[in-house]
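Why do we care about 3D structure at all? Because function follows from shape, and shape follows, mostly, from sequence. That is the central idea of this module. The next example makes it concrete: a single protein chain, its amino acid sequence, and then its structure expressed as tokens.
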Amino acid sequence: MNPHFNLKASILAASLLACSAAFSTPISKADFSQGKSRISADYAAAKVGCKDLTANAKDVCMEEAKSREKVARAELQHSYSEKPADLVKVGETRAKAAYAVSKEKCDDLAGNPKSVCVKEARAIETKALVDARMAGKISATRRDGAQDKVDADYNVATEKCETLAGDAKSSCVANARVKFGKS
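And the structure:
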């Protein structure tokens, strides 16, 4: 079994979770503040848990703790802002965090196996970064496309109103504005 299979599966699962996060409701400022405090406390506890480890195991543990903190902060920021750019940042942060942990784990190896391990981790990171950025572009394209569809439907509705006159035309245009959210 490939030792990086779990990493690949984790990145895929994280990407899918990021997509579902796009449909949540924003959190309040108070929840955001509490979330930051919780993340800091979790990070401090994780660092304490690494204290008894030695050598590279301690380094891996610390990198995992830092990575979890970075990802949690990115997720929290997106939950608060709900900006598409922050969703992309969540995916990028996950990819970079997974790479940092994998690279640290590669330090247990030497020679060619270590080189292969690092290059494989970098390749996985690159793919995950591309996926995160592509998801952001797809999201923006969908949003822009949806607005284009509404605009096209509004234009058709107002064009139909052109065949009318007087109050009927005014009423038709007003109804079209209401229906398509135009002011």
